Input
Amino acid sequence: MLKDVEENLPKNAKIIDMGCGKSYLTFAMYHYFNIIKEKNVIIHGYDLKKDVVESCNKLAKEFNFKNLQFFNEDIQNINKNENINMIISLHACDTATDYAIYFGVKLNCDVILSVPCCQHELFNQIKNDTLSSMLSYGILKERFSSLLTDTLRADALKLCGYKTNIIEFIDMEHTPKNIMIKAIKNKNFQKNVKNIENFERLMYTFNINPTIYKLLKDYFN
Ligand SMILES: C[S@@+](CC[C@H](N)C(=O)[O-])C[C@H]1O[C@@H](n2cnc3c(N)ncnc32)[C@H](O)[C@@H]1O
Output
């Protein structure tokens, strides 16, 4: 996963992990870039849980990982205006993923990698007469709402000038939450009004107003 995006990052890249939790990925990523690849990457992790952030900072000190730091902050309140090269979020809950993506776009990051989970937002909004039969089954409605949420996230990133793909980042046997939205800044991006109309049509079709749209519509090109 990191190998695939490495060429899009400078040697001294600055990376933010949004909703880092116990930060297994964050530590592994730091090890990969700074120890194995001998780069000078700075990584900051953000999480709501104070105790987890404290123990991650302690561990970073023990490993002497000088460019790895953790902050106890809601990602919705992060107010940064600096040069960040990559945003990652791994299983950040529900709309926290939207905020992670939003910061990536707002800060004009080269790479945004996001593995969503708990996509609850659209479940209570979604309505569609043609699909009413499918949507009457709770489990199917939940799965469909998740897929629609991630479709709109990926499409929104495209409209903001990113080459975007949805991939399986790990085998299903490890976790069923294995969909990753992978977005790389598209330097040759060209505005296409029709794509914005298609995006909005999809929202109207399902009677939804997702957070990703509210956060990113002003960045659509
Ligand atoms: C399922 S855990 C995943 C942790 C880690 N990324 C991993 O994959 O092991 C989700 C984490 O996101 C954090 N989180 C959720 N919403 C957040 C928010 N708005 N701001 C910061 N952290 C948040 C939670 O506290 C939790 O630690």
